[in-house]
Amino acid sequence: MRALFPGSFDPVTNGHLDLIARLVTLVDDMVVAIAVNPEKSPLFSVEERVELLREACRPWPVVQVQAFTGLVVDAARACGADVIVRGMRGSADADREMQMAQLNRAMTGIETMLLPASPAWAFVSSSFVREIARFGGDVAPYVPPTVAATIRDKYRQA
Length: 158
Description:
Blueprint: E1 2-7, H1 14-23, E2 29-35, H2 46-56, E3 63-68, H3 72-79, E4 83-88, H4 91-108, E5 111-116, H5 126-134, H6 145-157
Parallel strand pairs: 1-2, 1-4, 2-3, 4-5
């Protein structure tokens, strides 16, 4: 079974990596797909996000990292995914993720697996990490070391 795990990953967090580590035990292979949304102003370019995610996913040879534009279902079809996987941190995510899962299935027949975040990471989000970093806080507990260093460099240049 091939899974597609889409997201913005701006930046990738330890919560994302926890989900990936758990997913590789459930599927044959997976594509971590970085969404390119021209309406957003990400901290990291898509190329930087691909590079950071590839480095972070190096322990799992069954994981491919690629960027995509457009609909998640189109990315799932393009890579031959059998299932779309989404993480949920809590009840605030549940309604939106359920609606998207139902819409994706109605559009393509591809099922969505909703995987709850581990309690240790349920409070971590990329947007919180960016905010902590913007105000000079330490993001090292929430992201891989290479990501923490890259974030520090990014804010030093700003």
